[in-house]
Amino acid sequence: MVTILRDIVGITGILISFSLFLSPAPTFNNIIKRKAAEQYLPIPELARLLKCMLGVLYGLPIVHPNSRLVLTSNAIGLFLQAVYLTIYLIYAAREIRLKVVKVLALHLAVMTMLVVVVLKVAHTHETRSLIVGIPCVVFGSCMYAVPFQYLQMRATGRVPHASFTLFTMCGLNDFCWLSYAALPPVDLYVLVTSYIGAFFGLIPPQLCTCCLMVLHRHRMTSLTGDHRS
């Protein structure tokens, strides 16, 4: 019964994750239509790419058995991020394209190092899970800082699409994977990463509300001052 419940929660997490992975699609569709990346920087896609690469490695049977749902979710994300970044590299300016390629090379170097260590040094599932799980927690936690960049961009008017819906979906996704990891057999590394994500997921909507209130008051004050003058 617990196994069935865990699978249901995990599949729900996959569906929510898939919807989140599709959220940048309109942006890249516009890039294709305009045939230019303009000022857009693929920071979220690069962060998600590394997170998904680590997740795929972690979910492999030779590293952490019985993690097929984690593997599936991250494999889907890895494919979509690769598609987005391919589109970006086609239409980005040469200088920015080179910077993105350097970041991708760094990603590959990190993954190559982990694969070599897992295959040549670690000989048990526990050790392999530890070696890959710790980077998953570290980079996964860093990935959750991306919504704060969206929030800052929204405050400056650079990214108008950041919304409460995105933050809510991120929160639901984190709580799904938190529940999945907490059910037996407990997955410590997914549990910690999801807990951190759920914690940060509660913060952006509140900050967004405060920022909007401050901006509104500032605009009202400016309008009042202009009217009096």
TrEMBL record:
Specify where it is mainly localized: membrane
Give the protein family. Answer: Belongs to the SWEET sugar transporter family.
Species this chain originates from: Ensete ventricosum (Abyssinian banana)
Q: Which residues cross the membrane?
A: 6-25, 46-63, 69-91, 103-123, 129-151, 163-183, 195-215
The record's subcellular location field reads: Cell membrane
User: How is this protein situated with respect to the membrane?
Assistant: Multi-pass membrane protein
Q: What is the lineage of its organism?
A: Eukaryota, Viridiplantae, Streptophyta, Embryophyta, Tracheophyta
Instruction: Describe the task this protein carries out.
Output: Mediates both low-affinity uptake and efflux of sugar across the plasma membrane.
Sorted UniProt keywords: Cell membrane, Membrane, Repeat, Sugar transport, Transmembrane, Transmembrane helix, Transport
Listed under subunit, the entry gives: Forms homooligomers and/or heterooligomers.
Entry's Gene Ontology molecular function annotations: sugar transmembrane transporter activity
Asked whether the UniProt record includes Cell membrane among its keywords, one would answer yes
Any Pfam family from its record, for instance, is: MtN3_slv
GO cellular component assignments: plasma membrane
Which InterPro entries does this one have?
SWEET, SWEET_rpt
Q: What is this protein called?
A: Bidirectional sugar transporter SWEET
